[in-house]
Amino acid sequence: MAIVEVKVPQLSESVAEATMLQWKKKVGDAIAIDEILIEIETDKVVLEVPAPAAGVLVELIMGDGATVLAEQLIARIDTEGKAGAAAAPQAAAAPVAQAQAAAVSNSKAGVAMPAAAKLMADNNLASGSVAGTGKDGRVTKGDVLGAVAAGASAPKTVAASAIPTGVRTTSLPQVASPAVNLGDRPEQRVPMSRLRARVAERLLQSQSSNAILTTFNEINMAPVMDMRKRMQERFEKEHGVKLGFMSFFVKAAVHALKKFPVLNASVDGNDIVYHGYFDVGIAVGSPRGLVVPILRNADQMSFAEIEKKIAEFGQKAKDGKLGIEDMTGGTFSISNGGTFGSMMSTPIINPPQSAILGVHATKDRAMVENGQVVVRPMNYFAMSYDHRIIDGREAVLGLVAMKEALEDPARLLFDI
Amino acid sequence: MSKQFDVVVIGAGPGGYIAAIRAAQLGFNVACIDEWKNDKGGPAPGGTCTNVGCIPSKALLQSSEHFDQANHHFAEHGIEVKGVSMDVAKMVARKDMVVKQNNDGILYLLKKNKIAFFHGRGSFLKATDGGYEIKVTGAAEESLSAKHIIIATGSNARALPGTPFDEKSILSNDGALRIGAVPKKLGLIGSGVIGLEMGSVWRRLGAEVTILEGLPTFLGAVDEQVAKEALKAFTKQGLKIELGVKVGEIKTGKKGVSIAYTNAKGEAQALDVDKLIISIGRTPNTIGLGAEVVGLALDERGAIVVDGDCKTNLPNVWAVGDVVRGPMLAHKAEEEGVAVAERIAGQHGHVNFNTVPWVIYTSPEIAWVGRTEQQLKADGVAYKAGSFPFLANGRARALGDTTGFVKFLADATTDEILGVHIVGPQASELISEAVVAMEFKASAEDIARICHAHPSLSEATKEAALAVDKRTLNF
Q1: What is this model's ipTM?
Q2: Nearest C-alpha neighbor of B9 from the set B34, B45, B27
Q3: How many CB atoms lie within 10 A of CB B162?
Q4: Quick check: pTM over 0.90?
């Protein structure tokens, strides 16, 4: 019997602990090498834990929903085990996972303590579906409570093992806790996912440490829209990606940042740190919550490269596959509320940055040009900035620079 | 010529003789040394527990309990008894017989397990290539050699500075168990376990008992609610307990003992008693062990320094029981003894301090395992509590003893049992269920869902578990 240990992978430096989501395999199951056994959620990302060796899962040491540290032992695999086969020489009757587990070690995995058994039944959890942390692997009441809180309870359609990571989340109002109060004023308590909790923390931190102020301006999107219409087909053919609006916004933002470097700076104690590079974060909504992956050296990226990268981020976010390295750092951010139809908003700065651009929905509005009322597709831009280091002048002029660059894209070409 | 063994155990108290037997079971060639002498000068293995602790005190508690029942409770049952009297000498003789039965029992067990027993004091002679040489000083001088040494030399009663034990007027637990006649007035300094038990015995037999305790709280290590209930019960029984006392001069004369003290209010007081028992704790015993000869490390209390596995600073020298850190309980010594024997055999013994039960054999009995409510509060642990009084338990009513309650403390989120506290009849037995439950990391609901026989006191345990969820059925 050769036992291989399964451990929590290295977490990044700023991540101290993580939450186990749900075991995809149970004790007694056969495991292929690299097969994903469980996902572990940190503040920023969801990490997959692949099996380090092929064999049979013989022990689950930490259960669903448990809090773990980097390198912590969470399970054991017997590389010489046979799933479900009896270890004793006598031919086993039914290859039962429990028998295998018991034969391998003094394991009582799968055995549920009385209260745990009732809870599992109440929540339609099949025997063996909750990892046990009790003596010899018994399933305790706490284990089941944790599994239920992590969304394991099956309103029959949601079979836990079949759901891809992006969809099954803790932040969706699933049956995270039994709804209290029968009657017409029900309440349901859903614990925040780790990511949501972390986002909440950082937003609050930003609000309380930055002197946030927001300045607005309106952009006539007609020139950009025309250019886009004209170039779309050729752009797509040439670069294999659609020409969106975000690449324009990024270019315009970088243009403004170069003119007014303080918008691209950070506060560190009593110092202002001017960054000589442009890492622009693009706020993306994911099923788990808001994430802000970074376009590194955005000033050196072409329109096509920007579009491609953003599309990649979007997909990764949806699949929950954004890495920690995708999201650390950043000197400025852009948030697009327009995709959902927002007219105007006051974005919150992403610490340790000092400013953030919010773009919104483009709508035809009645505007006045040369004394005439005309219809123009208008977009309200909002830039929230940290007044500790950015004065109204830089903020307003920065936004004006973006407006000018977008309303006359030639400016981008000539750097003016 | 040195007699050769695999393991030599110094001390045959609960820690020592159990370690010796376990080691023998694991196939080792074992010798066990113990110096305790009985009245006739013969061997009396079993240590403090058997000779002047657990066993004799339980015997006296039982005898005195019967006397109390006959005097005050038989009438309720319709039993008419006249002229109940107490023959203290006979009670003490019975106690001695119980003790001897235990001594003999241990001697028999040692023989049965082919352990060589030596009557005398064991001490380190020197370290050798193969281990250590131990000298036995007794009726005959012996020299033993072994690779592994397990020290289980126990503890001694701590004396009040300036007031040495004479075991006539100033008594330790030893003398307290050999009082020849019921003292009219008995004083106790210290309201710990031993003090309370001894005070109970003689109070039941008719003594006027006054307990002087230095701490401002009664039974500080016990759960507050339980301590409160116990104090109420003891006071009702006639035990006078004074807390926050500062003891001054103690004078021993022909008439008895005079204790000058300052009470909690700061008033000067005086107490005159026939006999004074000092029970202010115990100190680890390494007298004559020869620790300095081999460089065995002791701490500032005089205890042998050991790690989590009971290993001392010397290779292959282990120490267990009262002579090392931890609760001074016989069963803790036994667990450590077994664990050490298993470790010597290359196995992995383990002692879980969090599931070691504590018992005070007064009436009502007090027993607990795990953490107290005040400990959980101090640690900021979120918990739920549930308790059930014996007053509402059918068996207790039939027994005629309905003092006390069972209390459960469970984790607020997972419902895992964090502590169980019992004051009442048979608490010492009832606590075992809680210990087993905690070892299995059971939740309060688990106990509530397990079938308990009716009618039994253990149903109070089940109901207390239900109380955690605020759904008792019988209260």
Answers
A1: 0.70
A2: B34
A3: 7
A4: no
